[in-house]
Amino acid sequence: MRNWLILGLISSSAWANPVPADFHYKQSLITPSGNAQYQLSLPIDVYQHGQRSDLGDIRVFNAAGELVPYTLRTPPAIEAKPETISLPFFPQIEQHNTPGSRTQIQRNSDGSLLAITQQELQKEFVTYLVDASKIKTPLSSIAFTWQNPEYSGTVIIEASDDLQQWRELQRGNVLNLQYQNQQLAQQTLALPNTSAKYLRLSWPDGAPQLQSVDVGLHKGKTQAPHEWQTTHISKSEQGALFFQTLTATPVDQMRITLPEINTVVRAQLYSRQRSDAAWQSRWQGVLYRLMRNNIEISNTPAMFSPNSHTEWKLQLDTQGGGIGQGQVKIEMGWTPSTLIFVARGQPPFTLAYGNKHIQSAVQSEADLLITPNQPIARASVASAVLNPNPTEQSDPAQQKKWLLWGALLVAVGVLAVMARNLMGQLKSSKQ
To answer: What's this model's pTM, rounded to 2 decimal places?
Structure first.
């Protein structure tokens, strides 16, 4: 009996760790040599095919099939109200029918703009120069106000450090309109966290008469680019559209595109984790898709706090006629988590996922001796490979529990046999 007990305990330790064959999917990780840790943004395949809402079915293996420790770094939170500052700006005047016209730009010794002078012939405001030379923090957004009561058009934003070489940062539509008793305003555009001394604003549709230019200052960590995935509407009833998102996806934005031009409708977005849970409001606002001056303008993405709810509802206000014919296009957006793993053993390393029976093995960054600002080498990832027949071994903790219960029962059985033998010996001695 003692031999069986020892064998059971040995077996429990032998079965403790999963192997790559236990997972539905795996992806090879390409790592430059000579580094102790590597990082990569979780690929979209993990969110599509992972089977745990907490991403707990992820594992990383080395070439020998051994587990290596890893952690997950969630994206930094976006500042609700970033610090903004107003910048000085100068209109540049385009000269018509004056081939010899010149523009003179005067700067102070510190590089800030002092004045712009031009010939006074047939002038038209078409561009603005914005002086950001005194700003040392990267810019995250730019916002405009203008005198015109109503305006819509495209603005092209370029950056330069010497007023000679310009690079495009962003182009987008801005507007402030009254349409079908709705106030439509979009006067802020995101910038890709750029540091530049000067900005140039070009207006292909004609420039408004600007009153102010404000920029948002980026003070947090730079976020990875958003991933986007089109969702499929599963049901619609009474102006409500129902759809689902991927498991474990921390959705924080929705691109909602209306099917017909010149449509405006109020909408509210809800989510919940389960079909028996109450709906929670995530966003409300105005959706629009308009044609102005032969340019299509539409609403910006709906933005809200990240959550991993899988059931969603878009409620449309149909009092103004709804959305017309066709189907709304909905794309969910999220910032993927960062996987950091320790390169123990020999490459190639493998990322495996897709096993609903397994428990999370993620560790803290402190346990892996990773500091917040520590530089970590980047790994790239190959295409996902499907394992059609995984063994899907159950969670090692569950295995240990049942094996220990079995060992306990065996021990009880051994004690029962020993007690029975002892009782028999006592009876024999009395006789």
So the answer is: 0.73
